[in-house]
């Protein structure tokens, strides 16, 4: 019987490449949204340091999380500020799987929070 590979150990909420994504040379400028599903996604990403794709879909209420993430990136976050880190896990059948984990970099988080503050004051629209 073949022994399954050991999954890589990644501390949830911390990704070593975070520093590379948070370069001051590439600031995030989030242009916003009025879409309720996208607003739920932003709220969830702000509340959790890292979000597995399945949990993202369930919490936000969508069937295609990667497409929703793509739209948020188009609104100004980009892959540099809303990355997807792939991790290795062993699924229930003993096979290696590489699910995606979404997370906001510190600059991405700042950009969303700044947009939300402007929105609260009536100065930003989606």
Descriptive account of the structure:
By secondary structure, the chain is mostly helical. The chain is 44% helix and 10% strand. It has five helices and five strands, in the order ααβααββββα. It has helices at residues 18-21, 36-47, 53-60, 65-81, 106-120, and strands at residues 51-52, 84-86, 89-90, 96-97, 100-102. It has a three-stranded antiparallel β-sheet with strand order 1-5-2. It has a two-stranded antiparallel ribbon with strand order 3-4. The longest helix is centred in the middle third of the chain and has 17 residues, at 65-81. The N and C termini lie far apart (55 Å). Residues 1-14 have low confidence and may be disordered.
Lay out the secondary structure.
Blueprint: H1 18-21, H2 36-47, E1 51-52, H3 53-60, H4 65-81, E2 84-86, E3 89-90, E4 96-97, E5 100-102, H5 106-120
Antiparallel strand pairs: 1-5, 2-5, 3-4
Question: What key attributes describe this structure?
Answer:
disordered N terminus; 126 residues; 5 helices; elongated; mainly alpha; 3-stranded antiparallel β-sheet
Shape: elongated
Give the helix proportion (percent range): 40-55%
Low-pLDDT parts are 1-14
Largest sheet: 3 strands, antiparallel
Strand order of the largest sheet: 1-5-2
Secondary structure category? mainly alpha
User: What is the helix/strand order?
Assistant: HHEHHEEEEH
């Amino acid at each position: 019987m073949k022994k399954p590979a050991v999954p890589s150990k990644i501390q949830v909420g911390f990704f070593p490449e975070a520093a590379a994504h948070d370069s001051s040379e590439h600031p995030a400028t989030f242009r916003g949204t009025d879409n309720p599903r996208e607003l739920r996604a932003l709220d969830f990403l702000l509340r959790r340091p890292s979000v597995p794709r399945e949990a993202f879909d369930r919490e936000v209420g969508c069937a295609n999380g990667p497409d929703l993430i793509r739209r948020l990136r188009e609104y100004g976050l980009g892959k540099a500020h809303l990355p997807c880190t792939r991790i290795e896990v062993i699924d229930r059948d003993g096979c290696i799987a590489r699910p995606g984990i979404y997370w906001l970099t510190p600059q991405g988080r700042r950009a969303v929070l700044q947009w939300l503050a402007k929105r609260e004051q009536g100065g930003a629209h989606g």
